[in-house]
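Inputs:
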Amino acid sequence: MNIMTINENLNAMPDQPNSAVNEPIVRAKGVDVFYGDKQALFDVDLDVQKNSVTALIGPSGCGKSTLLRCFNRMNDVIPICRVTGLVTLGGQDIHAPNVDVVSLRKEVGMVFQKPNPFPKSIYDNIAYGPRIHGMTQNKAELDAVVEKSLRRAGLWEEVKDRLDKPGTGLSGGQQQRLCIARAIAVKPKVILMDEPCSALDPIATAKVEELIDELRERFTIIIVTHSMQQAARVSQHTAFFHLGYLVENGATEDIFTTPEDERTKNYITGRIG
Amino acid sequence: MTEHVEILSIGSSKRHRAESRFRVYGIIAIVLSLSFLLIMVGSIATRGITAFKQSFVFVEIDLPADKIDVDDIKGTRFGKLLKSALRDRFPEATSRKEKKLVYGLVSSTAEYSVRDQVVENPELVGSRAGFWIRASSDVDMYLKGYIDAELAESQRRLNDKQLKWIKQLKTHGHVESRFNTQFFTGGDSREPEQAGILGAVVGSALSLLVCFLLSFPLGVLAAVYLEEFTTQSRLNRIIEVNINNLAAVPSIVFGLLGLAIFLNFFGLPRSTPLVGGMVLALMTLPTIIIASRASLRAVPPSIREAAMGLGASKVQTTFHHVIPLAMPGMLTGSIIGMAQALGETAPLLMIGMVAFIVDVPQGITDAATALPVQIFLWADSPERGFLEKTSAAIMVLLVFLIAMNLVAIILRRRLERRW
């Protein structure tokens, strides 16, 4: 059954008009996700363009985080969770038997809802990823990676004098930027962000949003958010989910100004959710 | 309006009374339990404190050169020399019976301490030298005030003549109470005045070492596997229930198991800290697994997600992040388990660590006994002198326990990290 859908999807791919013009870096085709007997996502098709920010919005429990966790196979950790359908990264099926989930997660980084720095020094937080992937040859290279990552996350000036202090001692917003720096230190192609600002105050949120906009130049970002203003501010593409279905997806401007579906319209105007 | 307020205040005063009553109950409970603890520790301390002192008697002994072979001092029979010295000291003891009473004033092991001193100072040979030698337990007990001189002669361990001799020694300043180093540096003995605790302390320490080396890695690995690497399957639940059951199994059953498996089947040496530690490890294993699982569960899942999200494998996530964070809890649990094991007597009886062993064990395959077993053995001995030794041994056991708990606290403080 699973293989059949994949084949169908593969056959269907060339028919897409814009696929040759602008090859998506991440693509979901006919993705169904089940938690035990309960189906959380129904036949989701979504293309994510390179070097753009794609926002996944929708009411709680609509499956947007579930889809996000499909992209780096974080759902593998949940024993009762089952994913069918095709998810590709750069044209490669990420569920293929020869795909190593460790290398996949190196390419697809993740930032979580609650800042979760390791209870180690700021330096070690950043250096952990490069270390386990053997990305640097010596201390000087590692130092350079740490500095570059912190600079890109806009945190360098704030922490350069206390790299050996615990990362958990930073403020919430700084911790979240530390987590972003940690994610970009392994040079991923895609960064998944699961409501990265929901635990932050407005000022820290603004900083993170600014950062997301800068990171777009180098990385592809998929962000789950509950704040429609945030989706409107940071994203170029928006996908609206409702009860496990991808209802509508397109350029952010279009979704927010001229939604086609009644449900999208209601959600954006605050009538459901 | 006023009525309403009145009703409110009546209700609240009732509630206040209930609260203060509850507080009084709590204070009573704490005071009661603390006073029981104080009574226990106090009675042990007052009984045992005298065991740290030992009476010594001064005797001048002739060491004639013709009776001692300078090349083989160890082979000389110092008992004879000591006895003649005692006869010289108390010439009024003429009959065989009286001489025996004189010999009974000093420890029967005294000749060996005289020998050791002469071996150390061979130049004493051929002279008359004074020695401080251990008084016998009865004399020691009398000097410590445990034997009532008012009692009828037939009812006490020392008769009137002996009491007279002791008094005579005292007036000459030939009796001295000294710190009993032998108690801390010697092994067990049939003679209370000679018995020491070191053998049991070393036996306990070695057993616990074996126990820790076996049960800590096994317990932690089992806990890590059960908590991090398996899914909630039926088998897993059965294992969990059985581990909890194992923790409640009476310790003597583990002793029987050790006897049947380790001694009879595998033929390991009996009475040794090796087997003792193995049996204790069986006993502590469930405690360690349960404590370790609890502390693994307390590590926030966000840390695991963070590591996995960076591309760390399951093993890397577990060993780089989860285990270090759970380590303080695991160590605390283990040391609590070890403290339990330290006080265990029953399983050690089963595997023969109850034997009478004089030597201090040198390794884990030497026959040994353990602290709680030593307490049991001494408490079982009829001699009056062992009574204070028993209490003193309990004090040593408690100090050992407190030291272990201190180590646990220090380790936890050092390893604890906040997130």
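Residues 2-268 of chain A form a domain with the Rossmann fold fold (CATH 3.40.50.300). Flag for discussion at group meeting.
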